[in-house]
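Why does residue order matter? Because the sequence determines the fold. Keep that principle in mind as you read this record.
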Amino acid sequence: MSCLEGKKRLAVLVGCNYANTPHELFGCINDVLAMRDVLVERFGFDQGHIELLTDAAGSLVIPTGANIKKALDRMVNQAESGDVLFFHYSGHGTRIPSTRPGHPFRKDEAIVPSDFNLITDVDFRHIVNRLAKEASFTILSDSCHSGGLIHNEREQIGSSSVANNTILQYSCNPKTIPFESILQHFASVTGINTSDIGTHLLESFGADASLKFSSHPVELNLFELGKQDEGILLSGCQENENSADMNPMMTGGKVYGAFSNAVQTVLKDHMGPLSNRQVVVMSRKVLQAAGFVQHPCLYCSEDNADTPFLWQPQTSGS
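Structure:
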């Protein structure tokens, strides 16, 4: 893919703090507000092409599962060949039992919108499969268990083989809601006695529930047949790890997601174009130096691993 001058740059930014709930986070809205500035000032995004969804008090559009997917659909539907699409999510993630036949013990990744209407790896695969020719779709997911969030995307930088025994320098909250807590929440809402999360989601959200649960298994198998695509995932951690959200009581009031902050630090320190691979490797180093035990990963094609992050033009900030 080549990003040509004049092509659109479109973004959906989602920050969920879950205020006044048992799952409250503190830095997620700050993460996406900071990223919005970076997109405009460094990468040439037009403010009018950035859709922001947060659960801050007074927000016009709350980041429910349906609203997030509608925003992503709008972005994909208006994209043309060569356009650059970006989705930044900062909030909770979770792992759910796989629905794929023959994988009874496998767990799949999902993000947790404000209403718990899970958006899964299958939903993101569906979005990538719908991209216009030579348009790119980059996800930066600052959430726990975010590795593998695009179903069947190729791993370029994955599980760390180096043990990290560093003690965290800060008190932080993990950006995860355990599957058991999500199941308990829906059991109280639906009144249905089942451990099948798909049953609860379909009962609660109907057609707005994830494709993972509403699609026939034969249809889901079609996602396995995809060839090289333009999906790019920068995950805040490995599938089995947690991403950190800073606790304001321990940081003097400064709150942020560790991975989002690491990426923004890397971009601030290196103004020229950086490849997707470089952004992930450098972010790992920033996190390790700060004492965080999480390992960002990269999932995409071999070619896209070495293309510029968000296709930054050579003339921008160089």
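The CA atoms of residues 36 and 316 lie 16 Å apart.
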